[in-house]
Amino acid sequence: MSLQTTEDGRLRHLLTLEGLPRATLVALLDRAQAFIDGEGAADPRTALAGVAACTLFFEPSTRTRLSFQRAAQRLGADVLAFDASTSSTSKGETALDTFRNIEAMGVRGFIVRHREDGAAAMLAASAQPGTAVVNAGDGRSAHPTQGLLDVLSLRQAKGADFGALKVAVVGDIRHSRVARSELHALRALGIGEIRACGPASLLPDDATLAGCSVGGDLDAALDGVDAVFMLRLQRERMEEGLVPSLEAYHRDYGLTAARLRRAAPDAVILHPGPMNRGVEISDEVADGPQSLVLRQVANGVAVRMAVLEALLA
Ligand code: CP
User: Fold this and answer.
1) Residue-range domains of the chain with CATH
2) I need a surface site. Which of 52, 101, 109, 259 has the fewest CB within 10 A?
3) Which pathway features in its UniProt record (predicted)?
């Protein structure tokens, strides 16, 4: 039995998409789509009535934190928002003590973001029976709900036959928990081809890119692809000197309208946000007709409803 699933395969926590069966991913995507289509079997407004959930974020966030709060509210949960900057974290209280204290208040759902790899799993391992932890981003490791909402956005745009699709994952893969979760989801759903592209200094040196073609030539990576998964240049996690300058990065790895013409004419562009406009993506691509950026954000609420319902209802 893994930490995140029970012996009969049910989710107890959602910490990573790595190793999750395709059927589990598809069930979450289908449930999210049902919420979008207004086809929830039961009234979603009461699914989590009487359940308390806390967004326990030790790192900044706009999309993930607020869309989890929106998702929990739409399911009827009571939502507590933990703000690290005004909490006793500033007095030196550990994440584990913080978690245990909030759990002692009767909170059953924890949505955790932390800069340390494995932080959400560490809290999940300490959780009482009946408490669920969702990883909302830990270090460079995983951001599972982002991976889910990205593949849901791709499925809406291109259909469920992922085996027929070629995609490019572009940019700062080395520091990206989003890329790792996207890659796990794409592989589990049987994607036809993944091209990973970025400067050698921003490519991971572990097994993250197993099965991908890997290169540093963006024009070649874009040739004929059906979707481009752009990544944020994570300057806050970066050692000095990994990119020569933002201008050079944009010249070599920025997605512009001219470059995008190399992809299939109906290719779609995804970016998890926040975007460094003018660095990894130009305004005209970010705001253009092929961009799914705001669709991804909208899908994030539905995906997070599906996850919270699966864990807490
Ligand atoms: N995509 C994403 O995780 O955005 P936030 O950091 O704003 O939550």
Assistant:
1) 22-142+298-312 (3.40.50.1370), 144-296 (3.40.50.1370)
2) 101
3) Pyrimidine metabolism; UMP biosynthesis via de novo pathway; (S)-dihydroorotate from bicarbonate: step 2/3
